[in-house]
Amino acid sequence: MTNTEIRPVPPEPVPTRKTRMARDAGKASESAAATARTRGTRLLAVLFLAPTVVGIVVFTVVPIVGSVVLSLFQWDVIEDPRWAGAANYREILTDSTVLISFRNTLVFMVLAVALQLLIALVLAITVNGRMPTWLRSVFRSAFFFPLVLSAASISVVMKYLFNQDFGPVNWLLGTVGIPSVPWLTSENGAMAAVILAYVWQQFGFSFLLFVGGLNNIPKEVHEAASLDGASGLRKHLAITLPLLSPTLLVASVVGIINALQVFEQPYVLTAGGPGDSTRTVVMVIYETAFEQLRFGEASAVGVLLFVLIMAVTALQFRLSRRYVHYQ
Amino acid sequence: MSTSSLSGSVSGSLPSPAGSRIRHGLAPWARIAGLALCALLTLGPVIWTVSTSLRTPAESFDLPPEIIPTDPTVDAYRGVFDQIDVWLYALNSTLVTALIAVGQMVTAGLAGYAFARLEFRFKKPLFALVLATMMVPLQVTIVPVFLELKAMGLTDTLLGLIVPAFPTAFGTFLMRQYFLGMPKDLGEAAMIDGAGPWRVFRSVYAPLAAPGLAIVGVLAFNYHWNEFFRPLILETSTENLTLPLGLVSLQGNLGTGSISVVLAGVVLSMIPAVVVFVVGQRPLREGITSAGVNR
């Protein structure tokens, strides 16, 4: 392909080129060079975009369609796939383990996200109070440190920490008079341990968002509120929270999407047990596909999870119209 | 969102908006004491892990836990190297993580530039497609992705972990913002001087993109060094395991007997993440914050 060839002006407007052409009006050779440049730009765009667009199509778009198609077949990879229609969905919607996993995931999501947001919000407001800058940096770094660790290896650690007889958690609770909790051996204890392990690692994310959001609230707003006699908790409830509501929306949307995909903590900490009490949807996808080789059913569970995530997110944005105030 | 607000929103040196004359509900010392307690609880599990990994197995479950081991020993670390092939797993993890980080910086840098500064057809729908895929969780598409990789012969290879992670919707978005924040005049001046589109990118804009690329690279490193779900599904041979998988298998092999060995393994696997946390804290924080803000 030669770049010097003169071509007619392309029909669609090209702003950068237009401005240049106005400047260089009447110079035919310049215009030819400009045309070549436009073609060069297009070629460059194709080359620059190819890795990302091809990659996204192959590894995200095709698999989404593939998930829906696979969910309508029965397939164990060894024999040929067989058409199943809605049978996979009927099966999983009557399967008690699948249903329990959805219930567990929703319970986990509500409690974990609520706890995560509450802790992060209180800490962010407190860290934003008056203190030396270096101390603020120390606290901020400490609170987001767990975020850089591996959820899987930290869950290994948590398994020891939550040990009923030898674990430091029960020892710590014992020093303030709380009797030993059967964290990993009772249904509620296991769910609580999974939630605490998850929130411990994740609250730093919401914390960072809130610190950023608080820094964007103009100082004058707080000063005016103080002059009007608002202080402490009341000031935060009446002034800070509404101004922070866009950040709260983002933190809760991202928090919920992440929580609905929880896997490492229950997989390592409790292996879904005792019984099915901490089995989550992603664990069921993993087990159904890669342990039982039921790819059709696993895909159907995946499609349901995707629909659930979309529905919850859409619902949040709907509700947000009423509760979120943009400055 | 401009790049300047991206860095400004989490800047540490900013004075507190609730500063000087504004009264808080709690006395300053009570607030700071409360925060110190919370910071201690947050770092507690990590401190316990490090200190227990330095204790003898007999002392590992001592309560109350001694922060400074009475009889420190690195036996547990020797134990890790005896029990699992740490060097191999670390090499695998390093290879996978480094190649993904570099690959994402390249793909996101190029695509981000194209979306920000080049004119071409279907730009808007293509960008919308990239944005939309940010919403799709990996766990939902893992079955077809696994089958694709199987068809390509890439399951149970490190390449099967690396290649699908090259495209990054979020990184592309971030780099687009980054290039949009650079003055347009620079490129126009170079074009008047006769530079073609490639020269404009290569000599004018690309050298300015380093801080943005650092965010993409640090986020990729942090995520993929710790990644568990994909390696668990894709890698079945012992020689292809990455560190997080190796550690979980270490724990499975040993039961509760040699807890210090397991914890020593955890500490070893944390080291690179901690180094990145210390060296790259700023891009990491900016990346995490904008990851939330831009979703």
Which features would summarize this protein structure in a list?
heterodimer, A: 327 residues, mainly alpha, MetI-like fold, 2 domains, two-stranded antiparallel ribbon, B: 295 residues, 15 helices, globular, disordered N terminus
Write the layout of secondary structure elements.
The complex is a heterodimer of chains A (327) and B (295).
Chain A: H1 15-23, H2 28-70, E1 73-74, E2 82-83, H3 87-94, H4 96-127, H5 133-144, H6 151-161, H7 168-175, H8 187-215, H9 219-227, H10 232-259, H11 264-270, H12 281-290, H13 295-323
Helix pairs in contact in A: 3-13, 4-8, 4-10, 6-8, 6-11, 8-10, 8-11, 10-13, 12-13
Chain B: H1 3-8, H2 28-53, H3 75-83, H4 86-117, H5 123-133, H6 138-151, H7 158-162, H8 169-180, H9 184-192, H10 197-205, H11 210-225, H12 229-234, H13 243-254, H14 259-279, H15 281-293
Please provide a written account of the structure.
The complex is a heterodimer of chains A (327) and B (295). Chain A is mostly helical. Chain A folds into two domains: 15-70; 87-323, MetI-like (MetI-like fold), CATH 1.10.3720. Chain A has helices spanning 15-23, 28-70, 87-94, 96-127, 133-144, 151-161, 168-175, 187-215, 219-227, 232-259, 264-270, 281-290, 295-323; strands spanning 73-74, 82-83. Chain A has a two-stranded antiparallel ribbon. In chain A, β1 (73-74) and β2 form a beta hairpin. The longest helix of chain A has 43 residues, at 28-70. Chain A starts with 14 loop residues before the first helix and ends with a helix. By secondary structure, chain B is mainly alpha-helical. Chain B has one domain: MetI-like (MetI-like fold, Orthogonal Bundle), CATH 1.10.3720. Helices cover 68% and strands 0% of the residues of chain B. Chain B has helices at 3-8, 28-53, 75-83, 86-117, 123-133, 138-151, 158-162, 169-180, 184-192, 197-205, 210-225, 229-234, 243-254, 259-279, 281-293.
